[in-house]
Specification:
about 325 residues, alpha/beta, 8-stranded mixed beta sheet, 8 strands
């Protein structure tokens, strides 16, 4: 048993198992049908497996990569049994996740530095962006960090109100202005306040509009430029929040946002209510951006630091 498996608590593991239950059940129902009546992994089984992976929202490109790797193993062992397919799939998916998610953190951590660690959060409306920010604030505070929130999504009054609810719930300060204010101005004020308060973590919410990629790009670039006037080389992290239950639509959102700004980490939410959890595998592989957090339930504790070892274990166990 690895060190990381030891420190990943029983409660977290049970939540993860439960959160991936629909995905796992659906996937293995399809897989059992794909190999029905077959004793060895042949061309028909691989064709069926390809269909299972694509329909499980792993994505076409990632699916083809997995199939190619399995084909190589079949070529070496002509009589590879279908009973071994689970083990092979597990290994190849783990290998894919290893290529992008190099770390295996299980706690909500930030690097030690003299200035506040600034996270700019991006994502379309409805993906769970504000909820993710609130849960992050809670977890960082539980870890002993001083947190400040910035309500820079000034396009929607509801976004400011929702973030205020989370600020109240987690008892962390929030910097906000009225609806329609300049988002960069809010970000500037937030960082100034955070420096004054000697905060450890700053989480900045941004507008979730995708109707015009150029405007989105300009707005996010302006926010970054203004923040750097207060703390050089910020933000330290650009976190893209994606709704895992939307399957392939999450891929499209990832394409749009990675084109509009430099995304450095991902949070995939709402995995508990869907059979589309395979999207985590495809997005991680295709965009080469580490999945840092996953949402596996509605509770405040149900945002987890993504641990690839535990994810694959829950998926295949």
């Amino acid at each position: 048993m690895s060190f990381f498996k030891k420190i990943f608590s029983k409660e977290k593991k049970e939540t993860l198992d439960k959160g991936l239950e629909k995905t796992k059940t659906t996937f293995f129902d399809k897989l059992s049908k794909a190999v029905a009546g077959k004793s060895t992994v042949d061309a028909d089984v691989l064709d069926n497996l390809e269909e299972v992976l694509v329909s499980s929202d792993v994505g076409v490109d990632t699916t083809l990569k997995i199939i190619d790797r399995i084909e190589e193993r079949v070529a070496k062992d002509k009589y590879l049994g279908t009973t071994e397919l689970n083990k092979i799939l597990r290994e190849e998916i783990a290998n894919l996740l290893n290529e992008t998610n190099s770390g295996e953190a299980t706690e909500f951590e930030i690097p030690e530095q003299d200035t506040p660690y600034v996270i700019m959060v991006v994502g379309v409306n409805g993906v769970g962006k504000t909820t993710t920010i609130g849960k992050l604030a809670y977890h960082f505070k539980q870890a002993g960090k001083k947190v400040v929130l910035g309500a820079a999504d000034t396009f929607r009054a509801a976004a400011i109100d929702q973030l205020q609810v989370w600020a109240d719930r987690t008892d962390v300060p929030i910097i906000k202005q009225s609806m329609g204010s300049d988002p960069a101005s809010v970000a500037f004020d937030t960082l100034e306040s955070a420096v004054t308060q000697n905060a450890d973590v700053v989480i900045i919410d941004t507008a979730g509009r995708l109707h015009n990629k150029v405007n989105l790009m300009n707005e996010l670039t302006k926010i970054k430029r203004v923040m750097e006037k207060v703390i050089p080389n910020t933000p330290n992290e650009v976190l893209l929040v994606l709704d895992g239950s939307t399957g392939q639509n999450a891929f499209e959102q990832a394409k749009q946002f990675t084109a509009a700004t430099e995304v450095t980490s991902l949070a995939v939410t709402k995995l508990d209510g869907t059979a589309k959890g395979g999207v985590v595998i495809g997005i991680s592989d295709q965009f080469k951006i580490p999945v840092k957090y996953i949402g596996v339930g509605e509770g405040i504790e149900d945002l987890q630091v993504f641990n690839k070892v535990e994810f694959v274990d829950s998926f295949f166990n």
